[in-house]
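Thread: Modeling a multi-component assembly for a lab meeting

Hi all, long-time lurker, first post. My supervisor asked me to bring a structural picture of a complex we are working on to next week's group meeting, and I have zero experience with this. I have the sequence lines for every component (225 residues in total). Could someone generate the structure of the whole assembly? Inputs are pasted exactly as I received them:
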Amino acid sequence: KNEVEQSPQNLTAQEGEFITINCSYSVGISALHWLQQHPGGGIVSLFMLSSGKKKHGRLIATINIQEKHSSLHITASHPRDSAVYICAVPLIQGAQKLVFGQGTRLTINP
Amino acid sequence: SAVISQKPSRDICQRGTSLTIQCQVDSQVTMMFWYRQQPGQSLTLIATANQGSEATYESGFVIDKFPISRPNLTFSTLTVSNMSPEDSSIYLCSVQTGALNNEQFFGPGTRLTVL
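Re: Modeling a multi-component assembly
Sure thing. I ran the full set together rather than chain by chain. Output:
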């Protein structure tokens, strides 16, 4: 079983739709990362969160530590949101080494 | 936060040659990491680049194949040696800016194709 599992693997939606990407993990963690990877390969760190909810613009990330689950939401989605979204958790609690999910490929059509 | 640049951004190389990838950070950082992302796969940690000492390699990665240098707190290089088509990947540098802060920042990546 993967330590970090994301769903769905692929998601296609129309511009304006509300998007949810899920991440479940099996190890105890201190923080979870959400990353965005554009087609060129570069990665941008979106959120690091250890509890509750964080919001940045149209992006919202939530985490439930007890259930070992996090969600990334995108409101009013736009074609420029098309990317691969990756969640990552420390290999062991408190460690710097990250274990990455397989990623969710999001395509937003105009 | 930290701004990271990588050179080259992409390259096409012949089998058997070596390529050195550079990672430059705009501020001093405690931890620097090198990751590989093979086509269709997620990221895998290659090694932790240690300033002034040998890198710490993950299982499956060895120094002879992926020599790493870190001469100071803002710069590191990763060399992919004796390349084969299986080395075709995106190579990413990442940094952690503080000893107590687990937030990591990633470079733009180097897309390597080996023919």
